[in-house]
UniProtKB/TrEMBL annotation:
It comes from the Eukaryota. Keywords: NAD, Oxidoreductase. GO terms for molecular function: glyoxylate reductase (NADPH) activity; hydroxypyruvate reductase [NAD(P)H] activity; NAD binding. Residues 123-295 form the D-isomer specific 2-hydroxyacid dehydrogenase NAD-binding domain. Gene3D superfamilies: NAD(P)-binding Rossmann-like Domain. This is D-isomer specific 2-hydroxyacid dehydrogenase. PROSITE patterns: D_2_HYDROXYACID_DH_1 (PS00065), D_2_HYDROXYACID_DH_2 (PS00670), D_2_HYDROXYACID_DH_3 (PS00671). Residues 17-325 form the D-isomer specific 2-hydroxyacid dehydrogenase catalytic domain. GO terms for cellular component: cytosol. Coiled coil: none annotated.
């Protein structure tokens, strides 16, 4: 194998974009770790098995092998590692500060997940508003609408989007077809073009005005449990909540209590605090519509995500720059 090829560490599996991954062989030597857990991975790294590695491709599921990409782990990696290309939009499994301290540039996926996740968002909003989960539960038990309360139309309802990024904007575009009034809150207001008719409001106003609240913000130290008991108390009685972001942006214990009190009438969840475990108070409540993190669970989107991540690696190898660096490292 040519000695001038860059060494690339594969953390996880390529499931769809096989030809695109194979084409990297022209410019890269692929190294696959043998470790089965974090302790073994750290030992393998310390043994010199990854020496000379220039970049890494990682998947969400690779956390089962490496654990979180934090200071402890990063400090064991070779200093030759300069690029970490993450196959996902959310990158809460990675500590950006630790990577920056060790001069490792991180990329994520910034648009390829938007449409598929927004589609799931719409499914959960309509399902939660119309009580579809309760109807499906009763139907499978041999009953016909037994004890299933009337639902509500989306038309005319106020949808509060917490995090009007790419997914939030794709959601807004879809809810226009349902004549929903969209308000949003970000740390900073967007341009009128990006707002596309959505109204910028304060965090507290979003909580108090929304009939439906959609969580579309990244998980980090500032957003963990951004929705908890205090925030629920500021919401309308009978509010509907949907989360397709990360489970830990909402306090699940507080959500279970809000459902029990009737403050939250129903909710739709694609993500959970301790995946794959789900809070028993959510599993047992028919007013909670649950799906197992399926926001991007489709062939076309998963293929596009892998291609995006491979393109980041290829760019790193050929130009020394990433296609989509994470915001924390802008200008690095």
């Amino acid at each position: 194998m040519s000695s001038n090829k860059k060494k690339i560490l594969l953390l996880g599996e390529i499931e769809h974009a096989h030809s695109e991954w194979s084409s990297l062989g022209d410019i890269a030597e692929i190294i696959v770790p043998t470790a089965c857990d974090r302790a073994e991975f750290i030992q393998e790294s310390k043994s010199g098995a990854f020496d000379g590695v220039f970049g890494a491709y990682r998947t969400f599921l690779s956390e089962a092998i490496t654990g979180r990409i934090d200071e402890e782990l990063v400090s064991t990696l070779p200093k030759s590692l300069k690029f970490l290309c993450h196959n996902g939009a959310g990158y809460d499994q990675i500590d950006p500060e630790a990577c920056t301290r060790h001069d490792i540039r991180v990329s994520n996926i910034q648009t390829a997940v938007d449409d598929a996740t927004a589609d799931v968002n719409i499914f959960l909003i309509i399902g939660a508003l119309r009580n579809f989960n309760q109807g499906m539960v009763q139907l499978r038990e041999g009953n016909w609408l037994e004890g299933v309360p009337m639902g509500h139309d989306p038309e005319g309802k106020t949808l509060g989007i917490l995090g009007l990024g790419g997914i939030g904007r794709a959601l807004k575009k879809r809810t226009d077809a349902f004549d929903m009034k969209v308000i949003y809150h970000n740390r900073t207001r967007l341009s009128p073009v990006l707002e596309n008719g959505a109204e910028y409001v304060s965090f507290d106003d979003l909580l108090s005005r929304s009939d439906v609240i959609s969580l579309n913000l990244p998980l980090n130290s500032a957003t963990r449990h951004i929705i908890s008991t205090k925030e629920f108390s500021k919401m309308k009685d009978g509010v509907v909540i949907v989360n397709t972001a990360r489970g830990a942006v909402m306090d699940e214990d507080a959500l279970v209590q809000a459902l029990a009190s009737g403050k939250v009438r129903s909710c739709g969840l694609d993500v959970f605090e301790d995946e794959p475990k789900v809070h028993p108070g959510l599993l047992s409540n028919p007013r909670v519509m649950l799906i197992p993190h399926m926001g991007t669970h489709c062939h076309e989107t998963r293929t596009a995500m892998e291609c995006w991540t491979i393109d980041n690696l290829r760019s790193a190898i050929t130009t020394g720059k990433l296609k989509s660096p994470i915001p924390e490292q802008a200008g690095m």
